[in-house]
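Sequence in, structure out.
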Amino acid sequence: MAITEILRTPEERFDDLPDYDFKPHYTEIEDPEHGALRMHHVDEGPRDGAVVLLLHGEPTWSYLYRAMIPPLAAAGFRVLAPDFIGFGKSDKPAARDAYSYLGHVTWMKDWLDRLALRDITLFGQDWGGLIGLRLVAEHPELFARVMIGNTALPTGEHDLGEAFKQWREYSQASPSFNIGGIVSRGTVRGLTEREIAAYDAPFPDERHKAGARAFPVLVPATRDDPAASAQRAAWESLGRFQKPFLTCFSDKDMIMKGGERIFQKRVPGAAGQPHFITENAAHFLQEDAGPLLAEKLIAFARSD
């Protein structure tokens, strides 16, 4: 078995990021092929507070939640925002084939187990939903409630749409993967130069971007995709999920707009919930409406 090089972004690249002065926390998880991998997370608020888990997507990292973490922590919640393997301050296998949908789910489950997290309120967006919803479906006992925005749980049975196909092609063919610029274009407000640089910080060169490059092609696009059967099983489990389930999709996300309807229809826990459309927000709704989302999430996490 070939040994995959594991890259680790130098800590000094994260110095003086705007609005991100959270203390880093690191957990070693085990991968059967790659050995120990170091995973980073933010951990704010009282240690005995109810757990709120914030999962980022592609190609972001926990910096995406910098406007939501402080109000959630101030409200008494223990707020955890991890960086997926390949992103943020977490380790980054250099080989593209080191990443798989199942691998990400397995890495996250190992991390949850090592932190012994229970009664979790999950907020997931983009791949934070694709991975988070698999965890909810496969381990529903760990979760108290779920809130999602601008995400999906594709099984490969439906066309992913032209906008997504263009994004997938760009992610594979472009010689330079401009992560900060990608995030900025996925917002309504646009990002400042310093914010763009913060999103670029984890990726000093193209070698560090294997995980980010891999995500778009890991979305199941055909019925025989390696993840398709697990996705169908996840939908079966979510079809029995009775705990509170809230959607907050954006009005200006050209790929995911309207995706909330399938969850509202198929997940029993979505019935009667105060679903809302996040107005004047694009794909990265945390950037366009972070304080509002934190306010809504606080109310939801305190609900029965």
